[in-house]
Amino acid sequence: MDWKTLQGVLSGVNKYSTGFGRIWLSVVFIFRVLVYVVAAEKVWGDDQKDFDCNTRQPGCTNVCFDHFFPISHIRLWALQLIFISTPSLLVVMHVAYRKEKERKYHLRHPDTNTKLYEDAGKKHGGLWWTYLISLLFKTVFEIAFLYILHWIYENFDMPKLVKCNEDPCPNVVDCYIARPTEKRIFTYFMVGASSLCIVISISEILYLIAKRCFRFCMLHSGRKRSVLAKGKMDYHPHKLIHLNHLPNGMSLDHVHASAPNLSTM
User: Fold this and answer.
1) Sign of the CA dihedral 56, 60, 62, 65?
2) Residue-wise pLDDT tens digits, 92-109
3) Where are the alpha helices (DSSP H) in the chain?
């Protein structure tokens, strides 16, 4: 595997990520990829060669090794790293689609300064959903691979001695695993790093949803305030009638002149 290529791809996603996404990427490369490349590959490099059974029956050692190690830890972790990194490409592809759409729009309308997107990498609209879906996929893949590892190797354990009675072994034979303590420590470390990535991904999902809900509430309250303000502007209180004029335009002097003079009657 070319880990530098993978790092370059994920580093491109990093500029569109939140703070949680940058922490996740740092954990993946420092505590998982780096440990995998530097140490884990060497620890499991001699697992089949040093898997020793107390029999010389041809084929017995190979069958027992395949029974207890149906898939190597190192290959399972490599698949896990590939699967959890792939969903991040969805975000890169969506941003590239936005930029291409923006470019074609300006080619068709060269005289306009209007932009389709204020920022192609800003998580609004469809890109927000793409980013959220990528996080959900990463979390599901992490949990699935942890379950597979736990199902194959119960409690992520690495025993020193295993007993095998598979054919063509003549009887129950004892088989010894090379460097079981070191392998157990690395297994626990990788499982812990994977669990930490799950916690970070779930935290980022909750953060995105909470931020979206807060923005929706603020927008809704802002619209409500604008409607109330408009209603106050449209409301006119009762106007005071001028002392010398009535609503129909007649003056009080005219009314007094046309009214009978009761004092002379």
Assistant:
1) negative
2) 888 888 888 878 877 887
3) 3-14, 19-27, 34-35, 41-43, 60-68, 73-85, 88-108, 126-152, 180-234, 252-258
d(C-alpha 135, C-alpha 141), whole Å? 10
The whole-angstrom distance between residue 48's C-alpha and the CA centroid of its chain comes to: 38
Q: What is the pLDDT of residues 177-206, one digit of tens each?
A: 888 888 889 999 999 999 999 999 999 999
Comparing CA positions, the residue from 39, 51, 66, 11 lying closest to residue 190 is 39
Taking a C-beta distance cutoff of 8 angstroms, is the pair 134, 90 a contact?
yes
Residues in CB range of 28: below 8 A, 6 or more apart: 10, 81, 84, 85, 197
The whole-angstrom separation of Cα 66 and Cα 177 is: 13
Beta-bridged to residue 163, according to DSSP, are 174
Radius of gyration (Cα) for the chain, nearest Å? 37
